[in-house]
Amino acid sequence: MDIIKEIVESPAVLKEIYGDLAKPGVQQAGKALSTVVGLGNTVLWPVALLNEKAKISLEKNLNKYREKLEEVPEEDVCEVAPEVGVPIAEKLSYVTNDELSEMYAELLAKASQKSKANNAHPSFVNAINNMSPDEAILLKSIKSMPGIPFIEVRLSKKESRKWHTLDSMKAGLSCLGDLQYPNNIHAYVSNLEGLGFFQVRQDI
After folding, report:
1. Where are the beta strands (DSSP E) in 50-204?
2. How far apart are the first and last CA of the chain?
3. Tell me: the pLDDT tens digits for 49-66?
4. How far apart are CA 20 and CA 26, in angstroms?
5. Rounded to the nearest 5 degrees, what angle is found at the Cα of 38, between the Cα atoms of 99 and 74?
6. Rounded to whole angstroms, how far apart are CA atoms 55 and 150?
7. Confidence label for 143 from pLDDT (cuts 50, 70 and 90)
8. Do residues 23 and 66 touch, judged by C-beta distance below 8 A?
């Protein structure tokens, strides 16, 4: 294990991933991840670098992370808590979806800064783990909105005064065209509500 950890932490591996050790953000990334590499599946990073497909994913995702640290002063960089860093690092080695990898990289970047580490709770990793790519797009599009009004669409029969629901949640979301499975919007909203991102209310 110690030998593998030394390999992962060596400048050669950083150079393999980032190409140029002088590139902005590389030293910050190396410092922040010093307590993470060698734990969990990060010991497989050297192996991943030998597989072309895995190498592309790992390099792309770690570069997203590096870019987020480019402007961070070195004195604000801190070692990432393993409880947050290890599961994220494992995901970055194989996640290919841009929306999800962006969320992982953003969370890891916050955990790498003394001024923001308190906002990187381990439970957030599990929340991303339980999201689909479509849900990541949906959450990104509504996160700055104070609320999302919606209506319930009903079909009523005048003679019997009976009705049935056609759509329990009809909302004008601009991101629907970006979703791979827009018809699953109800399931997405239900899951995101269950994860605690927002609350659906029908009493206002």
Report:
1. 150-157, 162-171
2. 58
3. 555 666 677 778 888 988
4. 8
5. 70
6. 44
7. confident
8. yes
- How far is it, in rounded angstroms, from Cα 161 to Cα 164? 10
Q: Which of 81-90, 111-120, 158-167 has the lowest mean pLDDT?
A: 158-167
Q: Do the beta carbons of residue 94 and residue 67 sit within 8 Å? A: no
Block residue for tokens 């997405």: 188
Kindly report the number of other CB atoms within 10 A of residue 127's CB atom: 16
Q: What distance in Å separates the CA atoms of residue 183 and residue 163, rounded to the nearest whole number? A: 23
Q: What are the sequence ranges of the domains in the chain?
A: 2-129, 141-194
| Residues 16-48: tens digit of each pLDDT | 454 544 454 566 776 667 656 654 444 445 545
Q: What is the pLDDT of residue 10?
A: 46
Residue closest to 14 by CA, chosen among 80, 63, 68: 63
